[in-house]
Prior knowledge:
Layout: E1 2-11, H1 15-24, E2 30-36, E3 41-48, E4 51-58, H2 64-71, E5 76-84, H3 87-96, E6 107-108, E7 113-118, E8 128-133
Parallel strand pairs: 1-4, 5-8
Antiparallel strand pairs: 1-5, 2-3, 3-4, 6-7, 7-8
Amino acid sequence: xxxxxxxxxxxxxxxxxxxxxxxxxxxxxxxxxxxxxxxxxxxxxxxxxxxxxxxxxxxxxxxxxxxxxxxxxxxxxxxxxxxxxxxxxxxxxxxxxxxxxxxxxxxxxxxxxxxxxxxxxxxxxxxxxxxxxxx
Length: 135
Ligand code: ZN
């Protein structure tokens, strides 16, 4: 079952500059910065109440975030992540509803979580992530 919006993923060109913006202009505090090899990104996390903001900077040209930045040169909202207590069941439900899954089985994500993405062509235009803490 989906329990909450866990985070908003925001694609950025320069992680360090973006972190400064969120800290200086919005007064948020960066919790941690982490490289996620499975997604070829460097990420920075901010607490915003119950929700997090996840900034994503590509670390390789074939990174999904690099491709997003080719289409959206200024960066922007990249995905919405729903926290679930059963990622396998969530994927099965989505698949049964006709959703095209990018990941049939969850992969390692940032912040010690398992994550899986649904294709935006079958999610009303919003790239959708399911995530759950690793056991
Ligand atoms: Zn995410």
